[in-house]
């Protein structure tokens, strides 16, 4: 034996045989298939956040609440399996309520489609759920909007909703809590015209808390009629100041006698007119003005804002007409009358009026007389009576004539 061990060829032969035996002991795996021999990997712990929770129950007849939307799943085990599960997330977390009864209960949150070689921890691991009978009921939808949604001077009338009824499905206790079903309209700006907006429908309890129910349809069309708060009122002419001397204001006319005002309803009710103010102190001839229409407090707008005003004037002139003879009537045949004052039996008269009437006047256009009927002999003060053209004013130098009445000589 020692001789064989000393033989180098023997040693080489033995080494060859051992190498062949060792080669044959290595497993021959096909690609993609696990081998008969696995090499242990390092342990690893990973947490997968926000894993959705599936609820398994009869959705046609029941409503379930209390199941969390997501959970955290902690995985512990071989590094490659943990990494694969975290990356693919090909497992499912669920709550099985197939055999659950109506009412409140505590149920486990479980997982499936996960490697048995992994240790799994779910947080939370249980859910306190409420299982209720599913109920569907029809409700009327009321539109709601803020009172300041419309511009000042406009009013919003009662809104309409299409469709005005919705089907609401939920747990019976939730359906029983529904006090209001509202579609709220919001606007980024103030309204001046009728609008139609899509609005979400909300179911609310008596304290205006939103209820967790299913509403069909979820949105409705709300139409809000908007109209101006306006009315027509007369435009009054207010005269300011006095015309210059010698100017008579015959007439003031407006191009339009009415204006439309825009105001809140309470102001609108109290407003009966608007006005234009005409300054007469600067008018000495026929004039056409454009003046602002003046509004009262609280009135937001007036139309028209400006109005044309026509002012018709007459310029007056004055002059004195002299030496108008004073006529005498009522003298008896055997008496005669003599003037003491004015001694010449003539007087002056001052006339005023439109220039076109006053300018051509002469003594012959006036008749001045005194009536001495029934007077005795002697001196008398007798009123002078004047007959003058129309549309003028006149004034005598004196109102009475002094006369003397005497019997004629035989």
Automatic annotation (TrEMBL):
Native source organism of the sequence: Mesobacillus subterraneus
Superkingdom per UniProt: Bacteria
Signal peptide extent: none
Source species taxonomy: Bacteria, Bacillati, Bacillota, Bacilli, Bacillales
PANTHER family associated with the record: CDAA REGULATORY PROTEIN CDAR
Protein name: YbbR-like domain-containing protein
Gene3D superfamilies the UniProt entry points to: 2.170.120.30, YbbR-like domain (2.170.120.40)
TM stretches of this protein: none
């Amino acid at each position: 034996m020692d001789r064989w061990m000393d033989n180098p060829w023997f040693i080489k032969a033995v080494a060859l045989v051992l190498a062949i035996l060792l080669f044959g002991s290595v497993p021959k795996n096909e690609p993609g298939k696990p081998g008969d021999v696995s090499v242990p990997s390092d342990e690893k712990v990973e947490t997968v956040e926000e894993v959705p929770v599936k609820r398994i129950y009869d959705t046609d007849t029941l409503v379930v609440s209390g199941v969390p939307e997501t959970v955290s799943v902690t995985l512990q085990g071989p590094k490659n399996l943990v990494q694969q599960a975290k990356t693919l997330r090909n497992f499912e977390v669920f709550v099985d309520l197939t055999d659950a009864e109506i009412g409140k209960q505590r149920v486990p949150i479980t997982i499936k489609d996960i490697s048995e070689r992994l240790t799994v921890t779910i947080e939370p691991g249980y859910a306190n759920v409420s299982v209720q009978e599913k109920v569907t009921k029809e409700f009327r939808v009321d539109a709601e909007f803020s009172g300041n949604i419309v511009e000042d001077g406009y009013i919003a009338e009662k809104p309409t909703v299409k469709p005005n009824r919705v089907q609401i499905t939920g747990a019976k206790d939730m359906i029983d809590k529904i006090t209001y079903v509202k579609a709220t309209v919001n606007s980024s700006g103030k309204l001046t015209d009728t609008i139609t907006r899509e609005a979400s429908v909300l179911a609310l309890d008596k304290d205006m808390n939103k209820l967790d129910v299913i509403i069909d349809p979820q949105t409705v069309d709300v139409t809000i009629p908007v109209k101006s708060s306006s009315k027509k009122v007369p435009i009054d002419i207010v005269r300011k100041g006095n015309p210059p001397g010698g100017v008579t204001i015959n007439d003031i006319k407006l191009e339009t006698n009415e204006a439309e005002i825009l105001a809140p309803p309470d102001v609108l009710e109290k407003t009966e007119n608007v006005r234009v103010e005409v300054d007469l102190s600067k008018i000495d001839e026929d004039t056409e003005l454009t003046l602002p229409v003046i509004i009262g407090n609280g009135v937001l707008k007036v139309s028209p804002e400006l109005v044309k005003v026509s002012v018709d004037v007459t310029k007056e002139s004055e002059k004195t007409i002299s030496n108008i003879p004073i006529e005498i009537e009522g003298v008896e045949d055997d008496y005669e009358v003599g003037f003491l004052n004015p001694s010449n039996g003539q007087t002056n008269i001052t006339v005023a009026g439109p220039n076109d009437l006053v300018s051509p006047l002469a003594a012959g256009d006036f008749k001045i007389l005194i009536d001495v009927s029934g007077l005795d002999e002697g001196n008398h003060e007798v009123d002078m009576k004047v007959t003058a053209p129309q549309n003028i004013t006149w004034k005598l130098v004196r109102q009475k004539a002094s006369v003397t009445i005497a019997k004629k000589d035989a």
